[in-house]
Amino acid sequence: MIGDGCNPDVIVINSLIDTLYKDGLSKEAWNMFRKMNEFKLVPTVVTYNTLLAGLRNDSRVQERFKLFESMKECGCPPNTKTFNIASMLYEMTEIGCFPDLFTYNTLIYGLVKVSRFFEAFWLFHRMRKTVNPDCITLYTLLPGAVKAGSIEDAFKVVEEHAISFAERVVSLGLRKNGSIMVLVIKLLSKKKKSLDAHKLFEKFTKFFGIRPTLEVYYHLINELLDIHLAELAWDVYKEMKNAGCAADSQYDVYTYNLLLDDLGNSGKVNELFEIYNEMLHRGIEPDKITHSILISGLVKSNKVEKALDLYYDLISGGFSPTPCTYGPLIDGFLKLKELDEAKSLFEEMIEYECKPHCAIYNILINGYGKAGDINTARDLFDIMVNEVIRLDLKSYAILVDCCCLMGKNCRLTGSFLKWFLRFYQKMY
Fold it and tell me: Is residue 428 pLDDT above 50, yes or no?
């Protein structure tokens, strides 16, 4: 063919390389690859894929990676077939040859180009364990992520620049609903920057015209209450009402529970039930947490009898109580020194097959201890041991308080401490 002055084209060379490799003539296949220069032919992605497959079959890992990295230098971008990424990385590390920044950027570029975003982000997070990404890494990942709608993944990449990134995405019209605000607010709150989250909320709603979702309102109110900015949280709630958010989301009841809990903790019982009635008027179904908050709010306002009445009203309506329902009631009666009523509720709790946890026992032991009934407190500790209920730090603090309450009764204190040592050895 060559003797007749007919030079082969790249398709013929690729076919010859493939045939030689399949016949076990790898040396001849590589000689054919080198001759492409003589014929003034440029290797294609098919050429490289054939050679890479041959190197893989020969377990020549280092040569395989050198050839892979040379593709970009030769202006030949890899395609989907080239990126058998998992085996390439694992084989590379097995021989003590670790990928560098260039290797990762090349692999990520190829994956993004063929829309394999999951693998691209997996590789990015793997990369960060050993190699610091550069601007090329980010410029490769972020546009592809936004285009594919993987905004949450993009935020994980640019945590330190979340606000500017979110503003850029919104200003370009790439995301017009409120879901992007949820991501930023959660991220900022995680970094204890709830006020920054509120400022961003104001900017997005008033400047960019983004309509917040109920989930946005919930997270923002939650974070503002968490840093004791109740007034600002209630302003956001009023804005939520004025915006006319439809009552069709689980975040409705979540948000109302936050507000009810704030009022209950503040002792504002009248306002507590006003908001509760508003919740019912809007057709939002209360959950078990809602009812527990109402009971707890009444107890904290020294309205224990009313709390008990509410509890029985709920029970008669088919309500299934939880430990969070019983805890405030038992605590309230113990503080009033009505030990029999507290005991009756505890027994009723068992009857309803509502298993008491550590917090319930802490309330009981603390109450009986402060009432001077050390024997009952000790019996309750014994029940915890027998039921294999693990104590928390508060349990130990209550135990110390019980010892202190015994005062100068050294005999009783010593007996109690000996019992505690036996208990501790049994638990641990």
Answer: yes
Q: Could you give the maximum distance between any two Cα atoms of the chain, in Å?
A: 116
Whether the CB-CB separation of 211 and 177 falls below 8 Å is answered with: yes
CB atoms within 10 A of CB 189: 19
**Tokens 């009033």 appear where?**
336
Its sign, for the CA torsion 310, 313, 314, 320, is positive
Nearest residue to 297 (alpha-carbon basis) of 268, 276, 274: 268
Query: Which domain range does residue 416 map to?
Result: 357-428
Residue 86 lies in a domain: no
pLDDT tens digit string along 13-35? 878 877 877 777 878 877 887 77
As beta bridge partners, residue 211 has 177
For 338, phi then psi, to 5°, come to: -95, 75
78, amino acid identity: P
Mean of pLDDT over the chain: 78
402 vs 359: CA distance, rounded Å: 17
Place of tokens 């503040």: 266
Number of domains in the chain: 1
* C-alpha torsion 31→32→34→37, nearest 10: 150
Place of tokens 């041991």: 385
In a domain, 380, yes or no: yes
**108 in a structural domain:** no
Q: Is the dihedral of CA 355, 359, 365, 366 positive or negative?
A: negative
* CA 89 – CA 97 distance, rounded (Å): 9
Which parts of 288-357 fold into alpha helices (H)?
288-300, 304-316, 323-335, 339-351
Please tell me the pTM assigned to this model: 0.63
Residue partners of 68: CB distance under 8 A and separation at least 6: 48, 52, 78, 82, 88, 106
Q: Do the domain assignments include residue 425?
A: yes
Is residue 421 exposed (0-12), middle (13-18) or buried (19+ Cβ within 10 Å)? Answer: exposed
Tracing tokens 């302003």 back to the chain, one arrives at 235
Structure-token pair, residue 136:
């090329």
Q: Cβ–Cβ contacts within 10 Å for residue 46, how many?
A: 18
**Distinct helix (H) and strand (E) counts, the chain:** 24, 0
Non-local (6+) Cβ contacts of 158 within 8 A are 138, 142, 165
> Could you give the residue ranges of the DSSP H alpha helices within 74-150?
85-94, 101-113, 117-127, 135-147
Cβ–Cβ < 8 Å for 214, 241: no
- Residue 334, Cβ density class (10 Å: 0-12 exposed, 13-18 middle, ≥19 buried): buried
